[in-house]
Amino acid sequence: MYLFVYGSLRPAWRRTSSIGGAAMAKQALRQKARHLGQARVGGELFDLGRYPGLLLNDCRWVTGDLFLIHDDSLLRTLDRYEGCDAVSPRPHEYQRVETQVEFNGQMFRHPVWVYESLFRPPGAEVVASGDWLKLQVQE
What we know:
Order of helices and strands: EHEEHEEEEH
Number of strands: 7
Strand order of the largest sheet: 1-3-2-5-6
Helix content: 10-25%
Oligomer: single chain
Number of helices: 3
């Protein structure tokens, strides 16, 4: 199984203290998956303040990181972190869905899990670069 991350779980993102549970989720990701490198997915990235949201579509490219999951329990941990497990209050902000990503300049041949936003809140601005890390450097 594979996972694409685009926000607080990216290896280069360092502000783990600004989001509850981020440090623990990143530690689980390091322990239960292998980082394969940078990838991108079709969609729109938008700024939700401390973290981004993603709507999958063919409008733009969103930059993130691709991981190979070697322990299935990671998905349960990340579902809890993203607030979309069975015990998280509804309505959920995210859902875990399968999609396709571009990796090393070509479409990756395996389905990839990603946490997609269920909605774009009014006033949430699109991140023009499609890269949450670049936006964070500008602040």
